[in-house]
Write a structure and sequence with these properties.
With about 240 residues, the protein is mostly helical. The chain folds into two domains: about 10-90, no CATH class; about 95-230, Four Helix Bundle (Hemerythrin (Met), subunit A), CATH 1.20.120. The protein has nine helices and two strands. It has helices at about 10-20, 50-55, 85-90, 95-100, 105-110, 110-130, 130-160, 170-200, 205-230; strands at about 30-40, 40-45. The chain has a two-stranded antiparallel ribbon with strand order 1-2. The longest helix is centred in the middle third of the chain and has 31 residues, at about 130-160. The radius of gyration is 23 Å and the shape is elongated. The structure holds protoporphyrin IX containing FE. Protoporphyrin IX containing FE binds near residues 163, 177 and 227.
Amino acid sequence: MWGALPSWLTADENAQMAVQELCPVMEENPIDPSIYIDYQGKRVYFCCMLCKATFEKEPETYLAKLPQLSVDPEAPDAEPAHDHLVDHGAPDEPSRLLTFMGKFHPVAIHIPIALVLVAALAELLAMMTRNGTFEKVSRFNINVAVLGAAVSVGLGLLAGMSADFPGDYARPFWLHKWIGITMAVFIAVAAVLSELACRRGGSRCRWGYRAVLLLCVALVGAAGYFGGQLVYGLNHYAW
Ligand code: HEM
């Protein structure tokens, strides 16, 4: 069970958390008080964002695991007050489409991540072997990575539009978003430098390209780190 309950919880939330200790999806995992949704007027907590998304897809499957939703035979037949999934989930078609497109962000991001790493490896091999073929391989990969990063940022912004990252998740979300956008910009700068280096020759553009490429590798790592925290929980990387 998590340590002392966070101070920003209301008395009612305290009561509900006191009742629900484990994630309804990953039953062995304690809940994370900052990951929750309001379902049928009750707050439901999860251990990570992935479980929250899983629950939102088919809540009926997990209702029996939620003490706060179990029907109290004594209580009068209460009308389900506000169904978060029904009332908010499907406002109108366009936003449903944008929300749907945002779900492809975790898929698309593998393109710029892989291509930046391959471009860096090829550039390293070009330096070690002085074989110009590797420079061409690096140039090709970084150019395609520009496209991949642009698509990933676009889908990321859509994903960010329909997801909420409250409390402790706000900062990793903000950092992820802006590291992602910065990374896309520097990938474009690297592509321009690699073009200049290939067309004009000379070492200045080449070394400029290598320096910016190294920065892109670091930004890939940081974007992936905070992205993973958003999906798998803040303690995901805890040893
Ligand atoms: C090219 C830049 C970017 C990269 C490489 C990147 C990478 C990632 C990674 C690795 C994840 C975790 C995916 C998983 O393991 O399932 C992730 C998740 C996420 N990213 Fe990005 N990201 C980028 C840009 C952005 C931007 C600009 C935003 C804007 C807000 C954003 C919003 C999100 C959101 C909301 C999630 C969670 C998705 C979910 O809940 O399924 N990302 N990103």
